[in-house]
Amino acid sequence: MSTESIGRIDWEISAKIEADPSMRSLVTAYNALVSPIANEVIGSIRAALPNMADVAGNMSAGELIAGSYLAALAPASFGGAVMAVMNPGGVRSPGFTSHPPPPARATATSPTARP
HEC states along the chain? Predict the structure, then answer.
């Protein structure tokens, strides 16, 4: 049982809810179908890109995310975007960091850096 609006999971209630075997089977089947896409490496970074902002509010992790949005949505067939922004609080801690070396990012883990 998850209450996303307040960001908590009630483990006591969750333990009392019996898992539906047919739903578990459905989720397992879909996980198998999307696994090749979800595990595809879509990029890697050569240096840490933290979510620490400078005095102007710029941060390397936010610039990477906004640049990715712009690259994806710039073609006319995807909307013809001419700019993309990321608010300073929009990058989940700690950004894209790992020591050493920075990680490759797979499709399934890419959204974990943003809300």
Answer: CEECCCCEECHHHHHHCCCCHHHHHHHHHHHHHHHHHHCCEEEECCCCEECCCCCCCCCHHHHHHHHHHHHHHCCHHHCCCCCCCCCCCCCCCCEECCCCCCCEEECCCHHHHCC
Stated pTM of the model? 0.59
Amino acid identity, position 14 = S
The answer, yes or no, to whether residue 17 has pLDDT greater than 80, is: no
Q: Distance of alpha carbon 81 from its chain centroid, rounded?
A: 21
pLDDT for 78 equals 93
In the chain, where are the structural domains located? 2-113
